[in-house]
Amino acid sequence: MALHFDRPEFAVRLARLTDRMREEKLDALLLFAQESMYWLTGYDTFGYCFFQTLVVKADGTMALITRSADLRQAKHTSILENVQIWVDRVNADPTVDLRNLLVEMDLLGARIGVEYDTHGMTGRVARMLDAQLTSFGQIVDASYLVSRLRLIKSPAEVAYVERAAALADDALDAALALTKPGADEADILAAMQGAVFAGGGDYPANEFIIGSAEDALLCRYKAGRRKLDANDQLTLEWAGAYAHYHAAMMRTIVIGEPNYRHRELYNACFETIQAIETVLKPGRSFGDVFDTHAKIMDERGLSRHRLNACGYSLGARFSPSWMEHQMFHVGNPQPIEPSMSLFVHMIIMDSDTGTAMTLGQTYLTTDDVPRALSRHFLDFINV
């Protein structure tokens, strides 16, 4: 079996989940997020682009309903024993098969939580599910129950996050070796992703971001490549990924002679991330982190150029995003606790002058100050 964790680890996770379900008075939970299924059972697939769900009862009983293409995937990569198949056919409605399974599991009239806020749940599936279950029992939104449990990483998970961080560092080394006037973005991107694969890592849950010149001001991947000019700027956001655990990094590299604005924006990024390191610890909240970011940026007249979030929790994630639900934004009361893997990013995009500057890395929280997982310093990079 292709398990990345031992069975006692999965048993602890199931116990944590069922304890929380009993606190929430849930008789069962329908998991649609692939990362929830992976965390709980090891089940590893991209088959969540089709209908599938993992039923978890409060007594710890589990059953997966999926397509035939994922039967062997579930048996090989997970601890699951009860795998039910819904059949592809014209006008198929797998929620009927799910309802029948819930009847077999003695859940008629039960209070059932559903993970609605996930990429594994389309609007059409949600409507079909609600149509089948509205009169079946009491249905409640439990989208964040498992994701909150996943915030705290076990020692085994921390080891994977650390490995992912080492691969992210390898990717930056590969990029720096190629970044110079005339270099092709395609070669840089290939080297970065190749470094992760060569180190035994995985595809990331979303594309690496690369952009130069005007495209350096973009915060998302887009198609198209160019060669670097003698004086240029290159923004990179990437993540090492190992056993689906991610450690993200972000940098803007200046090629040739940096201008005054590059230096000014870098100083704001560096000062802000240093300040955040003093609040990224137990006793503070995710909202406190954002407030620190906003205060320093706004005091420097950068309110129009900063973003409305400055990072998020990372862990085992699947496409289309390596971001977890919990983000550093205004008013987020989520407490910071030890053993969280958190990506902090400073992103300043000055469209008035066409200047980009970013700085970001992943931290592991402790009982006190956080530990940066990168071996690279947060220096201004000029090649």
UniProtKB/TrEMBL annotation:
Keywords: Hydrolase. Residues 161-366 form the Peptidase M24 domain. InterPro entries: Creatin/AminoP/Spt16_N, Creatinase/aminopeptidase-like, Creatinase_N, Pept_M24, Peptidase_M24B. It comes from the Bacteria. GO terms for molecular function: hydrolase activity. Gene3D superfamilies: Creatinase/methionine aminopeptidase superfamily, Creatinase/prolidase N-terminal domain. CDD domains: APP_MetAP (cd01066). Its EC number is 3.4.-.-. Residues 13-152 form the Creatinase N-terminal domain. This is Putative peptidase. It comes from Rhizobium tibeticum.
